[in-house]
Amino acid sequence: MDVFLVPTGPEAYELYCEHVDEIEAPAAEPPSGRLGRFNPRFVFGRLKQRFHQMLVEAERERRREHVASGETGWFQRAKRRMMRWVAESIAEQRLLWNLRRHDEATLHYPEDVSEAIAERVMKQQLSRDFEKHRFWLAIDSVLMVASGLLILVPGPNVIGYYFAFRVVGHFFSVRGARNGLTGVAWRKIPNGPLTDLRQALSLDAAGRLRVAESVASLLQLDHLATFFQRTAAS
Q1: How many CB atoms lie within 10 A of CB 92?
Q2: Which secondary-structure segment (H or E) carries 2?
Q3: What is the rounded distance in angstroms from the CA atom of residue 52 to the CA atom of residue 116?
Q4: From CA 183, how far away is CA 205, in angstroms rounded?
Q5: By CB neighbour count within 10 A (0-12 exposed, 13-18 middle, 19+ buried), where does 63 fall?
Q6: Residue 189: strand pairing partners
Q7: Across the chain, which distance is largest between two alpha carbons, in Å?
Q8: Strand order in the sheet with 2-7
Q9: Where are the domains of the chain?
Q10: How many CB atoms lie within 10 A of CB 54?
Q11: Residue of 7, 52, 77, 160 with fewest CB within 10 Å of its CB?
Q12: What is the rounded CA–CA span in Å between residue 126 and residue 13?
């Protein structure tokens, strides 16, 4: 797994990676007995199924060039807004979701930064992410229970999808951050093109984008330019 330490300011960095290859969770079969459907393992299995469905649908929505003219109802508009939010969340948490499944990773960092500093920044960011997602996992778990388990209701359930995505997403992020801190063997490699991104910070928006697209092409990272434009300090 390749992780990139992207300079986003004079002393600011963000960790970045691409590609989330979520394997579709098998259908969760309820345990035997009248209370089987309320078994925590079964409930979480259903949550993971909803989570996968959201990932697939958000990726499909992201690739669409336009919305069909018939999709003008309030539900379709609300659903498209949610899919845009999901797509943004995928970009934000892609690194952590991937880290939970790896025991080795390579940290690529700008050549003008020492290996010790790069490693320190990486660990600080993972520690920060661990605490943040653990906090929101607790909050959203309470809110999900308070919603009356709407996630188990068949049909177009926007509220259920929302809570399912947040709870499972934060859970995976917590696992990924913890594994990145304690379970992953990190290899550190200096990277010249990443240094170009720091130099691009002094350019205007158009110049910054040109450099980011050039670096993204060199590193074969499809969404790096968009990430850099969104996170780089003005």
Answers
A1: 16
A2: strand 2-7
A3: 37
A4: 39
A5: exposed
A6: 108
A7: 65
A8: 13-16, 2-7, 104-110, 185-191
A9: 2-7+23-28+35-65+73-192
A10: 21
A11: 77
A12: 12
The structure tokens listed for 38 are 């309320």
Taking only the tens of pLDDT, the chain with its 234 residues reads 999 999 999 889 999 998 655 544 444 455 555 444 545 565 556 666 666 666 666 666 655 544 444 455 666 666 666 666 666 666 667 889 889 889 999 999 999 999 999 999 999 999 999 999 999 999 988 877 776 555 555 555 566 667 777 888 899 899 999 999 999 999 999 999 999 999 999 999 899 999 999 999 999 998 899 889 888 875
Torsion of CA 200, 215, 210, 5, to 10 degrees: -40
Handedness of CA 156, 162, 165, 167 (dihedral sign): negative
Nearest in space to 96 (alpha carbons), one of 194, 170, 196, 9: 170
